[in-house]
Amino acid sequence: MAEHILRQHPLERPEYLRALEPSLPDIRLPDQISGWHRLTGITPVRQVTLLLILAAAWQIYASALNNPLILPSFAQTATAFWSGIVGGELLLRAWTSIELLLAGYAVALVLSFALTLMAISSRLGADLLTLLASMFNPLPAIALLPLALLWFGLGEKSLLFVLVHSVTWPLALNTYAGFRGVGETLRMTGHSFGLRGLRYAFAILIPAAFPSILTGLKIGWAFAWRTLIAAELVFGVSSGSGGLGWYIYENRNQLETANVFAGLLTVILIGLAVESLIFRVIERTTVRRWGMYR
Amino acid sequence: MPTPAPATLLPQPLLKLTDVTIQYATDLQIVTAVQNLTFEVLRGDRFILLGPSGSGKSTLLKAIGGFISPTRGSIALDGRAVARPGPDRIMVFQEFDQLLPWRTVRGNIAFPLRENGVSRAAATERANGLLARVGLTKFAGHYPHQLSGGMKQRVAIARALALEPRVLLMDEPFAALDAMTRRHMQEELLRLWDDLGFTLLFVTHSIEEAILLGSRILILSPHPGRVRGELNVPPHGGDRTADSRQFLERRIHGLLFDQAELPAPEEAAHG
């Protein structure tokens, strides 16, 4: 029965045309969501709440333990941190560390860029970079410290040496990988604008490889910060005032445990600030805006 | 400034290819992409390179662009040998990633102008003018990733035209677009040609597109690319009736079809 109907020409219906009815306007969703829902929808709010809970747990446990030599309470740590900031010592120590870190970072930036340029312009350069990076990248910077002491003595030069080592390799490797990943179409486009040499590298390769370069910068920063604090723990004593690592070490020797905690807190805060403020802002104004973020 | 050539009957060709052979080495063998090509493109031509895949059209266009050099033969623009890529031969690619993702639409058009010595104000003005021509004024401040495929190709075309190249090279620029957008873009390209009067060298494997866009069609046969013939397309309006177009289409089809018949499939499989 059904087959019989299907074989016939489909039932003919009248055609019709219509004037378009006006389209519905886009509507903003009414703000019906409750304040509570809105508040808990914000990630930082949840994170801060969690932090407060952890701090409260710390405070309760430390008060019960009542042994500030082993574990100062949250309040004691906060007080030590505050007086360190107000007194200026913590700030001074932090600045000493950051200054050194920036110097090392800048040297490593230039060095890794030179290495990468060498690597993209010749096969031998590429071999050299790959070889050096695969040799030195897995080598912890701290392991070079005894050697640095031997070569440069106690002081900033030794710290700089290990810093540069810890940043250069991950940065150079990521930059090189980024350059190699730049698509053929984009390369040809750059060349057809008449760009060559360094102009081409700065106008096409670096922005196109920027997601990888940024990753390299972040990894380099994390390595550098850790390396620096660890190295300072061993010898930050040389110059009049050492950095944060030395501050921590010194205060442990003097059994000022609350200050040790305050020093650690500063290390954490600076690390967080750089990652979540500086790098996030760079990310938002560059790779995210350009739609290149993966 | 080159001294003007002695007057001849035909105008001096803008682009002249003489016995161009392009070969490239793979791991296993040396492949010939195009073989002994000789042809001339005149000023104002809408010159189409038409051929099936494997006829070396894209390779040839890259050689004209200066990205690869021919194994034998010469490519000359305005009488001077093409040696390297340059802003006098801007290429529009099929791929959407030819725009710089880190520049806005306007920035993408203005950037190569700035690099070639145009002042900031003049570059911005020219960019705005071309954006208006391709109907993208509203999107001047957008980044490429916020545009659709057709809009990206429009920007690429606007950017190329802003540089006022001697010849605009296009490598199947509409092939990755949907049929409706493609049709729209083809008409827009013709309109731009009417308005601005540039020289176009356009690669396609679509006979329909070749007839629609071209004023002259070079037909290439595959494996390796060799010249099969060069045909005129009747001009706009007047002659260009559906009849003559259909006739041309059949003619081209015949030329391409003959070639495809030559190697028997069975023999190729055994050989």
Contiguous uncertain segments of 5+ residues of chain B: 259-271
Q: Work out the count of structural domains of chain B.
A: 2
Strand content of chain B: 15-25%
Helix proportion of chain B: 25-40%
CATH class category name of chain A: Mainly Alpha
Rg for CA atoms of chain A: 29 Å
- Report strand % of chain A: under 5%
Unreliable stretches of chain A, pLDDT < 50, 5 or more residues?
Answer: none
The assigned structural class of chain B equals alpha/beta
**Helix share, percent of chain A:** over 70%
Which SSEs are present, and which pair or pack?
The complex is a heterodimer of chains A (294) and B (271).
Chain A: H1 2-7, H2 35-40, H3 43-65, H4 74-87, H5 89-121, H6 123-136, H7 145-152, H8 156-180, H9 184-192, H10 197-208, H11 210-234, H12 244-253, H13 257-288
Helix pairs in contact in A: 4-13, 5-6, 5-8, 5-11, 5-12, 6-8, 7-8, 8-11, 9-10, 11-12, 11-13, 12-13
Chain B: E1 15-25, E2 30-41, E3 46-50, H1 57-65, E4 72-77, E5 80-81, E6 91-92, H2 105-115, H3 120-133, H4 149-162, E7 168-171, H5 179-196, E8 200-204, H6 207-213, E9 216-221, E10 226-232, H7 242-261, H8 265-270
Parallel strand pairs in B: 3-8, 3-9, 6-7, 7-8
Antiparallel strand pairs in B: 1-2, 1-4, 4-5, 9-10
Helix pairs in contact in B: 2-3, 2-4, 3-4
